[in-house]
Write the structure tokens for this entry.
Amino acid sequence: MIATIDLGGTQTKYGLIHNGEIVSAGQCEAKAQGPIHEHLNEVKVYLEDMCQKQDLKLSDCRGLGILSTGLVNNQEMRVLTTNGKYDDSKEFDFKTWAQDELSLEVRIENDARGALLGEWHFGAAYDVENAMMITLGTGIGTAVISEGRLLKGSRYSGGNLGGHILVNSGGRKCTCGAVGCLEAEASGWALPEIVREHEFYQKSSLRDEVKLGFKELFQHADQGDACAIAVREHCLKMWGEALVSYIHLFDPEKIVIGGGVMHSAAMILASFDKTIKEMEWRGGENVKVVQAKHTDNAGILGAAALFQEHKQVYAPLFFEPVYKSAIWGGSLIESIGRQVPVSDVPTGESWEIVDRSDEQSCVSEGLYKGSTLRQLIENDPEGIVGLGHQKEDAFPLLLKIIDAEQDLSLQVHPDEESCKHLSDSEPKTEMWYVLDHQVDAQILAGIKDDVSQEEFRAKIEDPSVRELMHSYTSEKGSAFFIKATTMHAIGGGNLIYEIQQNSNTTYRVSDWGRLDKDGQSRELHVEQAMTCLEYKNPTDAIVPYELSDCSFEAQENDDFFQVRQLTTCQFFQVAEFKLKGLLNFNTENRCFHTLYAVDNDLKIIHSGCDFILNRGQSCLIPARAGDYQIESRENTTFIHSRLSPQQVES
Ligand SMILES: O=P(O)(O)OC[C@H]1O[C@@H](O)[C@@H](O)[C@@H](O)[C@@H]1O
């Protein structure tokens, strides 16, 4: 839990933030003309009350994040300029105060930077590394994140003084001493004077307003008042032109606009878009101007983010599928909305999550777009994979969709023990979940009990060898656990989700006499297969699962969920969930989770942000994601996998 205070010109906001979520928030009058310590002591009491309601002491918090107006030295935790607000705060020692009065570590930053951090970690700028924030309010605050870092500059003013760029030479006098600054031309404090000095003011309906803010200005302009329309146009022009300069200076991907004026967001954003298209050097190509997500609370969220060393990096990860051709492949996968590459040999597999030396999943969206899973793991092995994971070790699972139009080979995979006797082999226990199938599609798994080793070997080259195998008719949602060393084949007409150890070792004993388009047969590996084959694998090496294994829990209204544990082997735990409503999950910072949405889209909520997992899509929840929720309006089935507890502990 982190306590936060966002000191404003008129209102101070404060709150308790946990994992990017607001646990409690409040606000009080800022009293910015008075001494800073009196105000902080007052807010301290409110925070203590808040903590008490959470059964906490304020000193139990991880720290206190403070945002202040003016420039801030965030190394020494000092306010450098005040501009008429809490004038004594330049001399105030925030660090000692927080230590003595609250027994807390304090971190302090400028308020616009704080708001940008809030939007970057948890809001509208979440998905970019080059972002700018502009708060259009009483004053105009700006802040910049460039290549993933807050721009600070040599005197802590980098990117912070965008309210004081010159937009109108010979224009109005600013509080900073210059003339024609953006703040002097189009800010809340300057507005009353601008309006009153306007040539149409005497006939304006704005004369009836006691308070003259942007809200009133926009309202009167909407009602057709000529003075309000003219001043609004002036402000939009000044802001828009300033944006063009910011884009030229900082080259952001996203500009987030916050502040009171965003009550009229649609028309403001449209106007900015137009100005940027007209005036920016490259016509605003790839620059998005968006409204702040946390209109009221970006500051307290950002103040908490001062305690995060990195941007919230543990959001769900979505990857580009890696498609693999296979002689037995088909087009069933198109039924789940996939467009597979066109080639001579059909697509047989989509590798959904893979970290192998010859194949990598690549992040498809968000902050890490374009990074490979390997790069993410090398940067942060425990954060992505889980406790004890070493950066040189591969991601332990490989997740695939298998699109079998024809039968796959009859085959076996080695276990750890047999790998010791085989060169270049990796152990592979796997499990399958049937997503879809054609009529009478079959799964062959395990050699029948009364078949002798000799009999099996003698028939290997004959397609009738299938009669020596246990066979199961596929059903949607049926699942098969295939322990390494078990003879098996996926029959034609199956679309399967596969969770397996990260391995690519398959020993084929028969490919059913099949030839490719050049008349070639695929390589068989009978000797290796015989080295690892377990003739009499017990049936729990296969296990088709029954729906009766479900646990069921009704929730409020007609929400419900149902969970079916599909596999709990030493390598992975896989469960099928059926959900309507909201369900909480937690990685406990120990081990990643993976998700696959079977029949509908799902919403994943993490750190105050929403992510959509489309039907037929997989994602990886990093180990350090902590709490997350899955929400579904329709009754939706999804597959949830993780490592087994033994594997995390070992
Ligand atoms: O050797 P083929 O027939 O291409 O089958 C190979 C495939 O077998 C399946 O049972 C799974 O183990 C897949 O992960 C594997 O890629």
